[in-house]
Amino acid sequence: MEQFHLLSTAEGWIGTLWSRQGLLALSFPRPTREEARVAVKEVLPAAGRRFRKNPGIVPRPGEGCCPSQSDQVSESGAEYGSEGTTDGHPEGTETSHRLIIERSVALLAGGLERYFQGRPVSFLNIAVDLSPYPLFFARVLEFVRHIGYGQLWSYGQVAAAVGRPGAARAVGNALAANLVPLVIPCHRVIARDGSLGGFGGGLPLKRRLLELEGCRPDPAGRYSLKGE
User: Fold this and answer.
1) Rounded to whole angstroms, how far apart are CA atoms 128 and 181?
2) What is the pTM of this model?
3) Is 129's pLDDT higher than 90?
4) Nearest CA to 116 among 205, 20, 226, 24?
5) In whole angstroms, what is the distance from residue 205 CA to residue 46 CA?
6) Cα-flanking dihedrals φ and ψ of residue 130, to 5°?
7) Which of 65, 66, 186, 215 does the annotation list as catalytic?
8) % of the chain residues with pLDDT over 70
9) Dihedral (C-alpha) 30, 36, 38, 43: value to the nearest 10 degrees?
Protein backbone atom coordinates (compact mmCIF):
# COMPACT_ATOMS: atom_id res chain seq x y z
CA MET A 1 0.00 0.00 0.00
CA GLU A 2 1.13 3.52 -0.78
CA GLN A 3 -0.65 6.72 0.13
CA PHE A 4 -0.16 10.14 -1.37
CA HIS A 5 -0.83 13.29 0.67
CA LEU A 6 -0.55 16.99 -0.09
CA LEU A 7 0.48 19.40 2.67
CA SER A 8 -0.16 23.14 2.62
CA THR A 9 2.69 25.09 4.24
CA ALA A 10 3.78 28.71 4.54
CA GLU A 11 6.37 28.03 1.81
CA GLY A 12 3.96 26.35 -0.59
CA TRP A 13 2.51 22.91 -1.29
CA ILE A 14 4.52 19.80 -0.42
CA GLY A 15 3.71 16.38 -1.85
CA THR A 16 4.37 13.27 0.25
CA LEU A 17 4.28 9.57 -0.55
CA TRP A 18 3.98 6.97 2.23
CA SER A 19 4.57 3.22 2.32
CA ARG A 20 3.86 0.72 5.09
CA GLN A 21 7.38 1.42 6.42
CA GLY A 22 6.92 5.19 6.59
CA LEU A 23 7.60 8.31 4.55
CA LEU A 24 8.92 7.31 1.14
CA ALA A 25 9.16 10.61 -0.73
CA LEU A 26 8.64 14.32 -0.15
CA SER A 27 8.79 17.17 -2.64
CA PHE A 28 10.27 20.59 -2.13
CA PRO A 29 7.63 23.32 -1.68
CA ARG A 30 5.76 24.15 -4.87
CA PRO A 31 3.44 27.10 -5.62
CA THR A 32 0.41 24.92 -6.45
CA ARG A 33 -1.14 21.61 -5.41
CA GLU A 34 -0.75 20.19 -8.89
CA GLU A 35 2.95 21.06 -9.10
CA ALA A 36 3.52 19.35 -5.75
CA ARG A 37 1.55 16.31 -6.88
CA VAL A 38 3.58 15.99 -10.07
CA ALA A 39 6.87 16.62 -8.28
CA VAL A 40 6.48 13.90 -5.67
CA LYS A 41 5.20 11.33 -8.16
CA GLU A 42 8.26 11.89 -10.34
CA VAL A 43 10.65 11.33 -7.43
CA LEU A 44 10.72 7.53 -7.34
CA PRO A 45 11.34 6.86 -11.07
CA ALA A 46 14.12 9.47 -11.07
CA ALA A 47 15.68 7.92 -7.98
CA GLY A 48 15.55 4.46 -9.52
CA ARG A 49 17.51 5.69 -12.54
CA ARG A 50 20.09 7.33 -10.26
CA PHE A 51 20.55 4.20 -8.13
CA ARG A 52 21.09 2.04 -11.20
CA LYS A 53 23.83 4.38 -12.41
CA ASN A 54 25.52 4.67 -9.00
CA PRO A 55 24.86 1.76 -6.62
CA GLY A 56 26.93 3.29 -3.82
CA ILE A 57 29.48 1.76 -1.47
CA VAL A 58 28.61 -1.04 0.93
CA PRO A 59 30.00 -0.31 4.43
CA ARG A 60 31.40 -2.92 6.76
CA PRO A 61 28.90 -4.24 9.35
CA GLY A 62 28.65 -2.16 12.50
CA GLU A 63 30.17 1.02 11.10
CA GLY A 64 28.67 4.42 11.78
CA CYS A 65 26.75 6.11 14.56
CA CYS A 66 24.27 8.94 14.95
CA PRO A 67 24.61 12.28 16.76
CA SER A 68 22.11 12.83 19.56
CA GLN A 69 18.86 14.71 19.03
CA SER A 70 15.94 14.94 21.45
CA ASP A 71 13.46 17.46 20.00
CA GLN A 72 10.10 16.16 18.83
CA VAL A 73 7.61 17.33 16.23
CA SER A 74 4.39 18.81 17.59
CA GLU A 75 0.95 18.42 16.05
CA SER A 76 -0.52 21.59 14.57
CA GLY A 77 -1.87 23.39 11.70
CA ALA A 78 -1.21 22.61 8.07
CA GLU A 79 -4.01 21.39 5.82
CA TYR A 80 -3.64 18.19 3.86
CA GLY A 81 -5.51 16.05 1.39
CA SER A 82 -4.92 12.43 0.46
CA GLU A 83 -5.43 9.74 -2.06
CA GLY A 84 -4.39 6.14 -1.59
CA THR A 85 -3.94 2.79 -3.31
CA THR A 86 -4.28 -0.70 -1.85
CA ASP A 87 -2.58 -3.96 -2.71
CA GLY A 88 -5.01 -6.67 -1.68
CA HIS A 89 -4.39 -6.76 2.08
CA PRO A 90 -7.35 -7.54 4.38
CA GLU A 91 -9.60 -4.56 4.95
CA GLY A 92 -8.91 -4.35 8.71
CA THR A 93 -5.15 -4.36 8.22
CA GLU A 94 -5.45 -1.83 5.43
CA THR A 95 -7.53 0.48 7.60
CA SER A 96 -5.01 0.20 10.44
CA HIS A 97 -2.10 1.13 8.19
CA ARG A 98 -4.07 4.00 6.70
CA LEU A 99 -4.80 5.41 10.16
CA ILE A 100 -1.15 5.11 11.19
CA ILE A 101 -0.10 7.00 8.06
CA GLU A 102 -2.73 9.66 8.60
CA ARG A 103 -1.44 10.26 12.14
CA SER A 104 2.08 10.55 10.74
CA VAL A 105 0.86 12.99 8.09
CA ALA A 106 -0.65 15.17 10.83
CA LEU A 107 2.63 15.11 12.77
CA LEU A 108 4.63 16.00 9.66
CA ALA A 109 2.21 18.78 8.71
CA GLY A 110 2.49 20.32 12.17
CA GLY A 111 6.26 20.00 12.17
CA LEU A 112 6.62 21.64 8.78
CA GLU A 113 4.37 24.48 9.90
CA ARG A 114 6.61 25.12 12.91
CA TYR A 115 9.76 24.71 10.83
CA PHE A 116 8.78 27.34 8.28
CA GLN A 117 7.97 29.69 11.15
CA GLY A 118 11.64 29.45 12.12
CA ARG A 119 11.03 27.32 15.20
CA PRO A 120 13.35 24.40 16.14
CA VAL A 121 11.91 21.09 14.97
CA SER A 122 13.07 17.50 14.74
CA PHE A 123 11.34 14.96 12.54
CA LEU A 124 12.78 11.90 14.27
CA ASN A 125 9.34 10.64 15.24
CA ILE A 126 8.35 10.41 11.57
CA ALA A 127 9.05 6.89 10.29
CA VAL A 128 11.07 6.96 7.06
CA ASP A 129 11.23 4.12 4.53
CA LEU A 130 14.88 3.66 3.52
CA SER A 131 14.28 0.39 1.66
CA PRO A 132 14.76 1.86 -1.87
CA TYR A 133 18.39 2.84 -1.19
CA PRO A 134 21.66 0.95 -1.55
CA LEU A 135 23.08 0.04 1.86
CA PHE A 136 25.71 2.78 2.01
CA PHE A 137 23.22 5.43 0.93
CA ALA A 138 20.80 4.28 3.63
CA ARG A 139 23.52 4.44 6.29
CA VAL A 140 24.47 7.98 5.28
CA LEU A 141 20.86 9.12 5.22
CA GLU A 142 20.14 7.57 8.61
CA PHE A 143 23.13 9.42 10.06
CA VAL A 144 22.21 12.74 8.45
CA ARG A 145 18.67 12.31 9.74
CA HIS A 146 20.08 12.78 13.25
CA ILE A 147 22.00 15.99 12.52
CA GLY A 148 20.38 18.54 14.79
CA TYR A 149 18.58 21.74 13.93
CA GLY A 150 21.07 24.49 13.06
CA GLN A 151 24.10 22.14 13.04
CA LEU A 152 26.31 21.96 9.96
CA TRP A 153 28.52 19.03 9.00
CA SER A 154 30.80 18.68 6.00
CA TYR A 155 30.54 15.81 3.53
CA GLY A 156 33.90 14.59 4.81
CA GLN A 157 32.78 14.69 8.44
CA VAL A 158 29.74 12.59 7.59
CA ALA A 159 31.91 10.13 5.64
CA ALA A 160 34.21 9.69 8.65
CA ALA A 161 31.25 9.31 11.00
CA VAL A 162 29.81 6.41 8.99
CA GLY A 163 33.18 4.66 8.80
CA ARG A 164 34.38 5.75 5.37
CA PRO A 165 36.96 8.53 5.84
CA GLY A 166 37.76 10.18 2.53
CA ALA A 167 34.46 9.16 0.92
CA ALA A 168 33.06 12.70 0.80
CA ARG A 169 32.05 12.31 -2.85
CA ALA A 170 30.13 9.11 -2.09
CA VAL A 171 28.34 10.93 0.74
CA GLY A 172 27.39 13.65 -1.73
CA ASN A 173 25.98 10.99 -4.06
CA ALA A 174 23.91 9.55 -1.21
CA LEU A 175 22.53 12.96 -0.28
CA ALA A 176 21.73 13.73 -3.91
CA ALA A 177 19.52 10.62 -3.84
CA ASN A 178 17.61 11.74 -0.73
CA LEU A 179 13.88 11.31 -1.40
CA VAL A 180 12.75 13.02 1.80
CA PRO A 181 14.52 16.40 2.12
CA LEU A 182 13.75 18.41 5.26
CA VAL A 183 12.85 15.21 7.15
CA ILE A 184 16.34 13.95 6.33
CA PRO A 185 18.04 17.37 6.46
CA CYS A 186 20.66 17.06 3.75
CA HIS A 187 20.73 20.88 3.59
CA ARG A 188 22.76 20.73 6.85
CA VAL A 189 25.69 19.11 5.02
CA ILE A 190 28.02 21.56 3.29
CA ALA A 191 31.52 21.64 1.81
CA ARG A 192 34.62 21.43 3.99
CA ASP A 193 35.56 25.04 3.20
CA GLY A 194 32.21 26.29 4.50
CA SER A 195 30.65 26.86 1.09
CA LEU A 196 27.20 25.43 0.45
CA GLY A 197 28.14 22.50 -1.77
CA GLY A 198 25.19 21.10 -3.71
CA PHE A 199 21.47 20.72 -3.10
CA GLY A 200 18.65 19.16 -5.11
CA GLY A 201 16.33 22.06 -4.36
CA GLY A 202 18.87 24.62 -5.55
CA LEU A 203 21.33 26.71 -3.57
CA PRO A 204 18.93 29.62 -2.94
CA LEU A 205 16.58 27.23 -1.12
CA LYS A 206 19.48 25.66 0.81
CA ARG A 207 20.57 29.13 1.88
CA ARG A 208 16.98 29.95 2.86
CA LEU A 209 16.63 26.79 5.00
CA LEU A 210 19.90 27.46 6.79
CA GLU A 211 18.83 31.03 7.44
CA LEU A 212 15.58 29.76 8.98
CA GLU A 213 17.72 27.68 11.34
CA GLY A 214 19.85 30.67 12.32
CA CYS A 215 22.88 29.69 10.23
CA ARG A 216 24.40 32.69 8.49
CA PRO A 217 27.61 32.93 6.48
CA ASP A 218 30.55 35.17 7.27
CA PRO A 219 31.37 38.13 4.97
CA ALA A 220 33.15 35.74 2.62
CA GLY A 221 30.02 33.62 2.29
CA ARG A 222 31.35 30.71 4.38
CA TYR A 223 29.44 28.86 7.07
CA SER A 224 30.85 27.45 10.29
CA LEU A 225 30.97 23.68 10.64
CA LYS A 226 30.21 21.64 13.73
CA GLY A 227 33.20 21.69 16.09
CA GLU A 228 34.75 24.81 14.59
Assistant:
1) 11
2) 0.81
3) yes
4) 205
5) 21
6) -100, 10
7) 186
8) 77
9) 90
CA nearest to 224, candidates 184, 186, 196? 196
CA distance 177 to 114: 26
Distance of alpha carbon 156 from alpha carbon 114, whole angstroms: 30
Band (1; pLDDT cuts 50, 70, 90) = low
DSSP string, 146-207: TPPTT--EEHHHHHHHTT-TT-HHHHHHHHHT-SSBTTB-GGGEE-TTSS----TT-HHHHH
CA 121 to chain centroid: 13
Averaged pLDDT score across all residues of the chain: 83
CA proximity to 88, closest of 24, 22, 1: 1
Q: What is the per-residue pLDDT across 13-41, written as a single tens digit (0 to 9) for each? A: 999 999 989 999 999 999 999 999 999 88
Contact 134, 58 (CB under 8 A): yes
Is the pLDDT at 60 greater than 50? The verdict is no
Instruction: Report how far apart, in Å, the C-alpha atoms of 92 and of each of 15, 95, 103, 119 are.
Output: 26, 5, 17, 38
Q: Does the annotation mark 65 as catalytic?
A: no
CA atoms within 13 A on the CB side of 123: 28
Residue 185's nearest CA partner among 22, 28, 6 is 28
| Beta-carbon contacts of residue 2 (< 8 Å; ≥ 6 apart) | 17, 18, 19, 24, 84, 85
